[in-house]
Design brief:
Radius of gyration: 32 Å
Mean pLDDT: 92
Length: 638
Amino acid sequence: MECLTPYIPPALLPYAEQIQVHIHEQSQTLVIAAVSLAAISLGYLFVAGSRESPVTFTVPNPPELSDDWVGTKWEDLPEGSVERGVIEGQVRGQWNENLIMSYCPADGRVLGNGIKPATKDDVDRAVAAASKAQEQWASTTFAERRRVLRTLLKYVLEHQDEIVIAACLDSGKTKVDATFGETLVTAEKLKWTINHGGKALSPESRPTNFLMMYKKNMVTYEPLGVVSACVSWNYPFHNFISPVISAIFAGNGIVVKPSEQTAWSSGYYLEIIRKALESCGHSRDLVQSVVCLPKVADVLTSHPGIAQITFIGSKPVAHKVLESAAKALTPVTVELGGKDPSVILDDSRTISEVPSIASVLMRGVFQSAGQNCIGVERVIALPGIYDSLLSTVTSRVKTLRLGSITIDTKPNAPGAPDVGAMISPASFTRLESLIDDAVKQGARLITGGKRFLHQTHSLGHYFTPTLLADVTPDMAIAQTELFAPVFLMMRAESVANAIEIANSTDYALGASVFGYNTRVVRKCVSQIKAGMVSVNDFGSYYAVQLPFGGVGGSGYGRFAGEEGLRGVSNIKAVCVDRFPRLMATRIPPRVDYPIWKGKGPKENGQGAFELCKGVVETGYQPTLAGRAKGIFRLLGNM
């Protein structure tokens, strides 16, 4: 312990023993205090931790998730059966009003036994049940809400296989794509909300001004009641659970309308959320789901019991949703997809990193078979890198393999696919036509361009991975959201031209810029019209829960991050007395109603006007002399 002996100046050596004893006593006191503080802190953390500890629960898995499930392909259903007729109609884009059948778009296997579409009464019941449950839920603490989210996060992490397989079966995507787009981003949203949601929704102090210095201002974020989310099919798990996370943490109930295309997995995912609520001692009715067709969807979007709507889908459907919501003056957050550009600069370092950039772009284009609202739809490359990038991606695109998550285990079988199926063949004719027209106008079709007839999965909906070069902004394919596995390359003559091309569509959702010249990158980021931009990456803004949304033809409003939580809250402005017993607002007699108090110049209203002018000058004149003038005017007309 010699190393801990304090230094004592020579002049104080006679008192060394007493000094050392004193220091020793003080040290003991400090140690005891530190240990006590640590114990208190650990105790608090233990109590808080135990209060928020996740709960373990189980959800019965659908039989389709078992390893030995073979299933029946819809083509093998009996001729003339209702179920087969319903699916055949759905493949052609025609929905039966009495039954919705689910099937795997990658191989045609039937999922479940079908779902009866919700009626108007079903919607009314769902809203009423959520509203009743929300009355109690609104009074829960952030700690109680975090516990539910921790419970959900625990389940997601422990049951990735089941969640991913369900998403793959219902949407046709690969397991890798489902892990990136379903479980990873859901885990991130849960973790972000657990760590930062309370701060985002805590009351905020706001500044005051000179005239109102005796007041305190704040903004509070309160539950709205019951909100709704109408979500798309391309990410069946994440799109379903993401609005639920925000809604319930903000204290709301929620009614989710999933796409009829992925109705089967939505029922499974709903049960996971409800079991998490139930296991934590809360009503499972807080979260509702209605699978319905457009006529009944209008009942939901115009329902007076719905306080806010999040809509993810296409522009034509958005027009109908907004028209419907206007009946009840319900606010809507709208996300309508995009035609996201990736601008590839040609500085020396960027040119040296073509292979790495190509890898990011391949993921951006082909993830979920291109069915991604922030997928890379246009690669805009400068002259110094265009040919090298095109050459690099050509061999990669040509070798991509299509298939189902059902991996063929026979000898010499290819194994897991690179790209999965598309949700429906409904867009194939349009895609082929757009590609053909572009080629006629001068674009080069390097590979792909047509629907793919899979040898193993003849009922699967596949489109060949496509690489189309030398596309120009005047081509229809450069202006139309494809939502397909199409790598579309456009040549820019300069940075200004690249920005011009990036801004040449009606869409403005996401974008990305690849380059290392800081000045040029900043110029691109600031001048490209988009709601979100990644630099040297693809979609990274969502992986860290920044606000998600676009402008222009891509919609408005934001979900994710603080803005997303506040978007499903009542943002209430509150102004209170700072010193309620000492100072409060008092109306001067001169401006107290009735203003007219006599015929004199001060009593007939002129004095009141002069007093008001004095108030304005006192509060807002920029100079001390100006404020003094205002004070004298004010006092002279009291």
